[in-house]
Design a protein that fits this description.
196 residues, mainly alpha, 2 domains, elongated, signal
């Protein structure tokens, strides 16, 4: 069955662009049905999908490079099962398996020695809430914002050091109210470029 799944995955990947760009929906500027069907969380009636459409939707999930172990395990079990198993995976199993993978990712973030207080606090809140939506929200936006909070504290500590150069002080003052990306860049690279 694994060989067949691999062949289906290759075929789905090769045919998907051709099928998507030749549909009337693409020409009309709306989302093609195949793209909508591949995203089970958007309310597409999974019960109306054919066995082939179900397989393609699951294979697209498996083809995503960010797919974790839990989703991969559950998707493979669904593909090895019946049509109803595939429907059930797309309706609820995918969401629950993604939550399992998200939980693992958050625990890894908390275990990272470079994670600061803000990140650990927000990660703990997400884990305590323990809903798929809270876990996903932390990974998509909460982590970035909590990291920015920790980065601002790190920049403030640099500013509190009386021995830093005037150039580094000016650069830190410029970035302390910056975006999360600007703060991260300053701490990882920018501060070393100033004093180079």
């Amino acid at each position: 069955m694994r060989l067949t799944r691999g062949a289906l995955l290759v075929a789905a990947g090769a045919l998907a662009p051709a099928l998507l760009f030749t549909t009337p929906a693409f020409a009309a500027g709306t989302a093609p049905e195949a793209v909508v069907a591949a995203s089970p969380a958007d309310g597409t009636p999974v019960d109306q999908m054919s066995e082939e459409e179900l397989r393609i939707a699951i294979l697209r999930i498996l083809a995503d490079e960010d797919t974790g172990r839990g989703v991969t395990r559950e998707a493979n079990e669904a593909l090895d099962g019946t049509v109803e198993d595939m429907r059930e995976f797309l309706k609820t199993g995918y969401r629950l398996a993604q939550a399992e993978d998200d939980r693992v990712a958050i625990v890894r973030i908390m275990g990272d020695p470079d994670s600061g207080r803000g990140v650990k606090r927000e990660a703990t809140k997400a884990l305590d809430t323990n809903t798929p939506e809270a876990l996903r929200a932390f990974l998509e936006t909460g982590y970035r914002l909590a990291q920015a909070e920790d980065d601002r504290v790190a920049v403030a500590r640099i500013l509190a050091d009386p021995t830093i150069s005037a150039a580094l002080r000016a650069a830190a003052e410029d970035v302390i109210d910056g975006t999360p990306e600007e703060l991260r860049y300053f701490l990882e690279t920018g501060r070393y470029e100033v004093d180079a």
